[in-house]
Amino acid sequence: MTPNPSQALLKVFQLLDRDGGGVLAPRELHKLIANIPNLAPLDHMSLLAFLYESDSDGDGCLTFEELRSAIDSDRLTAYTDE
Ligand SMILES: [Ca+2]
Fold first, then answer.
1. How far is the CA of 58 from the centre of ligand 1 (A)?
2. Are the C-beta atoms of 71 and 35 separated by less than 8 Å?
């Protein structure tokens, strides 16, 4: 059985969202990306660019929905693919 990537992502998201605020700050996002299997680590500038592009409400943090739609649209792999 293949785990649902969305479920796995939600699990990591909740682990890292320590205050339960429902959003990830850039530092937390960095840890999350480091925990996604088969994904190359993202350097800081790429991470910030990804965050900026994915942050649809512009609050500087990513909600799970913002993150999931970014990953669903393969925007993240565009940053990690060489
Ligand atoms: Ca946001």
1. 5
2. no
Number of H helices, E strands in the chain: 5, 2
What digits encode the pLDDT tens for the residues 34-58?
Answer: 877 777 777 888 888 889 999 999 9
**Six token digits for residue 75:** 């925007």
- For residue 2, the CA-to-ligand 1 centroid distance in Å is 29
Q: What residues does each domain of the chain span?
A: 22-80
pLDDT tens per residue, range 5-37: 778 888 888 988 888 889 998 888 888 778 777
This prediction's pTM: 0.74
> 65 alpha carbon to ligand 1 midpoint, in Å?
9
Of the options 1.10.10, 1.10.20, 2.60.40, 1.10.238, the CATH number for the domain spanning 22-80: 1.10.238
